[in-house]
Design brief:
12 helices; 10 strands; 48% helix; globular
Length: 305
């Protein structure tokens, strides 16, 4: 599945970010702790031009703590990256963020010059809520729908740091099958961007594989259904998803499941693991090498002819 989702304001945001990046000292990238790599915009690495980045695994209070620890170890092992986990009630951790940014650019901070940071992130990862917490007042508009922030804004903090906000934006194509559905399941992609019932079926399948016990407890099931379709049928029966004649309203069942998943009512859940992504990258590298070898062989044949 390839999701094409690149509204006009997101294209504008990309151009604005590239234009002002030379004036930025460090980048703060807000990620969703439940899907750290799927919520990582690949455009950020190219746009930041080697600037140090603080990756914040936000909504960690909704994520599986064991998997979060694995992701932090993975991210902190990469050059130029500092990673922390965060939930919005951790005010002391939020207050330390400006100092973390200063530590990433000591040459500027040691001269007591204002450290200029740009905060970036895909829609609905809690970026605006974090800005309000950093400023100590409500300035950035907050919403539970993706893409609330539409224009770039700049704020001056009292502790020697300037903060540029950017609209939450996705990249032109989300080509990874799992990433697209995970973003949709978490609410980062509008429900109208991909068929809603397909998202519900993907989420049901994932939960059956990774968190079956949560399903049994949340929906008071006597036994675990064998398929995602059977699970949605059970949820529909128990949560008002029955139409006249006993027909299951699948859309209603998907709505219940996705709302429970997004709100944390199914417990602390993380959609992806470090090991899984390492396997995907290894497979992608293998395919790249095979393609290069095939192309080289074809060119060799052409030369001999």
């Amino acid at each position: 599945m390839t999701i094409n989702w690149f509204p006009g304001h997101m294209h504008k945001a990309r151009k604005e970010i590239a234009k002002v990046m030379d004036e930025i000292d460090a980048v703060i990238e807000v990620l969703d702790a439940r899907l750290p790599l799927s919520s990582e915009n690949p455009l950020v690495d190219s746009l930041r031009k080697g600037k140090p980045v603080l990756k914040i695994l936000n909504k960690s209070d909704l994520a599986d703590p064991k998997r979060t620890a694995e992701w932090l170890e993975f991210l902190n092992g990469q050059e130029g990256i500092t990673a922390i986990a965060l939930s919005q009630d951790q005010k002391k951790v939020i207050q330390k963020i400006p100092d973390m940014c200063k530590q990433m650019v000591p040459a500027r901070a040691n001269k007591e010059r204002t450290v200029r940071a740009m905060i970036m992130g895909i829609p609905n990862v809690g970026k605006s809520t974090l800005i309000n917490a950093l400023l100590g007042r409500r300035i950035a508009k907050v919403g539970n729908e993706p893409a609330v922030t539409k224009n770039q804004k700049r704020y001056t903090l009292k502790n020697g740091m300037a903060l540029s906000d950017t609209p939450g934006f996705l990249w032109p194509k989300i080509e990874d099958y799992d990433s697209g559905y995970r973003l949709a399941s978490s609410g980062a992609i509008r429900d109208t961007a991909i068929e809603y019932e397909l998202v519900g079926q993907y989420a049901a399948n994932f939960l059956l594989q990774d968190y079956p016990q949560r399903l049994l407890e949340r929906y008071k099931l006597k036994e675990l259904p064998e398929t995602n379709t059977a699970l949605l049928d059970e949820i529909g029966r128990k949560r008002g998803g029955l139409r006249p004649g006993g027909v299951i309203d699948v859309h209603k069942a998907c709505e219940v499941l996705l709302n429970d998943l997004r709100s944390g009512k199914l417990g602390l859940i993380t959609f992806e693991t470090v090991a899984e992504w390492e396997e995907k990258r290894a497979e992608a590298e293998r395919m790249r090498l095979e393609a290069e070898a095939a192309e080289a062989a074809e060119q060799d044949v052409d030369r001999k002819q």
